[in-house]
Every structure is written in C-alpha cells, then in structure tokens.
Amino acid sequence: MSVVQLSPRVQELQRRLTDFVENECIPAESEYQKELNQGSDRWKAVPPTMGKLKSRARELGLWNLFLTKEYKEGAGLSNYEYAILCEIMGRSPMLAPEACNCSAPDTGNMEVFAKYGTEEQKRKWLDPLLDGKIRSAFAMTEPEVASSDATNISTRIVPGRGHGGNGYVVNGRKWWISGAGHPNCAVFLVMGKSDLEASKYSQQSIVIVPANAPGVRVVRPLTVFGYDDAPHGHCEVVFENVWVPKENIILGQGRGFEVIQGRLGPGRIHHCMRSLGMGERALELMIERVQQRSTFGRKLIEHGVVLENIAQSRMGLESARMLVLRAADMIDKAGAKNAKKEIAMAKVVVPKCVLDVLDRAIQMFGAGGVGQDTPLAEFWAGMRTLRIADGPDEVHSRQIAQLEIAEQNERTSARRNRNAGIKARL
Description:
There is one protein chain. This protein is an alpha+beta fold. The chain is about 50% helix and about 15% strand. The protein has eleven helices and nine strands. It has helices spanning about 10-35, 50-60, 80-90, 95-100, 105-115, 120-130, 255-290, 305-335, 340-365, 375-385, 395-425, and strands spanning about 135-140, 155-160, 165-180, 185-195, 205-210, 215-220, 235-245, 295, 300. Helix 3 (about 80-90) packs antiparallel against helix 8 (about 305-335). The mean pLDDT is about 95.
C-alpha cells in the first residue's frame, strides 16, 4: 500500500517480488529449516535452499534493491519506494531479505562502504558484498558497558605497527554481533575508541577487520528467546591485539560517530519496513485461524472480542505504516540527519504495534501459537528484540521529546518575534 502513485517500474517490482515471496520463499521455509543440521554443523554451511532462492531473485531482477538512487551501485529507487518493497520481504524474514541480498547487517555495511569507503575499500569489500559472495558484521555493542550510549564503548583502536607496517591495533570484547556466526562472514566493521583525549564525539573510530585476521575469535553464539538464528547468529566476539593496516580506517580517525549516524538511520527504517510485513502475515494467519476453529458452539470469528482484535490490528498496522512511509519520504527529501524525529517515532511505534498483532494472533492459535508449526513465536522473539536493537525505545523517546521541545520553542520564538515586529510597525 502506498499513499502516492508508484512508477510503472516500482509497480512491476512490487508484483514480481510479491509473487517471489508468496510462491517461492514462504513455501520454502519448512525445507530450509529441515536443511539446518543440528549441533555445531548448523554454523558450517548455508542450507542449499538459500542458494536456489538467491539465483531466482537475481533472475527476477530483485537483487540489491536497498541502495537508493544516490549510489551508483544501487537499484535507483528512493527510500519511499524501497519501503514498499521491503515490507513484502518482511513477510518471510528468514529467507526473502537474504535471498534478495537485502538483509541486515549487510545492507548497513554496504551503505557504509558505498558512502564513506575509498575506491580500494569498495573494490575489496563492497563489490563482493554486492555480489553476494561474502557476508559481514557490524561490531559495536559490548557486554561491559551500556552500549545504547555509544560514547561508553570501551574497545580500543590505537595506532600501532604490525607485520605490514603502520596501522591500528584493536582490543575489545563485543557481543550480539549479528552475522558473525555465518560461514561466509568475511569482514567486521569495528567501532572503538582511538583517542581518549579528544572531544566526546570524536574519540571513536571504525576500522575494517577481516574475519580471518589473527586475534579475532568468535566465542559463542547467543540465543534470542532460545533461538540461535543459525547460520547467521548473534555472537560474542573477542578482538585481541588484532592489527589492521592504516588504510582500513573508515572515513578517518575520530569520525566513528559520523559513520554510525549515516549507517543507522536508514537501517532502522529497514527494520520497521520488514516488521510491517511480519505484522501483515500474522494478521492473515489470525483471520484464517478464527474462521476455522470453534469454541462453545460458535466459530471464533463470531466472538466479539475476536472481531475487536482484528480491527485493532488493522488500525495499528495502517497507522504504523504511515509513520514508516513518512520517515522514508523525509530521508529522501531532507536526508537521514534531518529525519531523526520521524525515524525515531517509527522505530518506537512499529515494533510495539507488530508485537500487539503477534500477541493477538498467538492467542487465537492457543498452544499452537507458541510452537514451531507457525512463524508467530519466532516473529514475536524478533520483534521483542527490536525494541532493544538499534537503540532501545527509551533512547528514541528521549530524542523525540528533545526534538519536539526544540521545534516548539523555535516556533514560539518566531511567533513572538513576528508579533513584536507587527506591534513596532503599528
């Protein structure tokens, strides 16, 4: 659904992508799960189903849709147009985004390379990522500090010599590093402090660390409400005296905050887009379920509370979608930096809304809703996590309030000055 007329090209992509997700990705979900081996083998290979879906997505022209028209490497879409398509992928979050090479954290990392990378960095890392030959991870969050305030980050990135000459030495422990467990993960973007004497937001840098560099150790995969998300994973990773050459710095020493602000804004909206797809699928499952089951001599759909659940879910999803489209439109027109409030509002509202829809759907399925026979339980785990990932609700709400106060004070001041000018002329 869109509030503006989509171009013929985007309409065709929408039709093609919907067909791909509904008729190829969703039916393949159970087979993909069967192909995931048990035990440590889960982290050693990608199920063959994913390779088949990737080939199919390439054939259909559904590859790398996420990079917007400002990048020569992208598909030439706006953030608004991609929002429409990304929601469709969210209906099969386990398969469709990766099949189309549009899954996190690779999308954010590719945007970093495309926006801030040198030509050599692009050649070495962006090109194979865009081609789907490798995967990546973004290492920021740490177990010892409250990482929702990134100024707390304690990993050190200090100048030092290695076997290749001048460069940087990285020491630190990270966790919840999505993608670090993937057998094709070839590169980390690592955030740490490079200058403790610099100003608060100039202490941090981001460096490129090859996954096979000496001193990089994936300690363990971490579970999300019991899900390990193999072979992708969310891992604890140690960087111990890891040396990288000086050309592996992103944008420049002390510019880490600049990089992550450019990376996280669009990425947060991508999460919201996919979340709406999950919410829509959950609502469909709910409606299908309540028309099939009976309690106390009546179909579930004949109970007033069930009808109320359906209505509340539809109203919530439509409202949340408007916030996402508004944020995407603002990014297109004013840039992510000037769309901070819209991005933050979507990031808070959408996961809560979709969680409510999922909770209602689970309730309609009863015991079956918390098991493995539907995607609802796994969707719920992902949505609950999203209220923490990429900044917890409280951080975004704080930013929304601060921006709202500043904007209102600016309007009030302008009104007073205008009134004062009118009085002076009188």
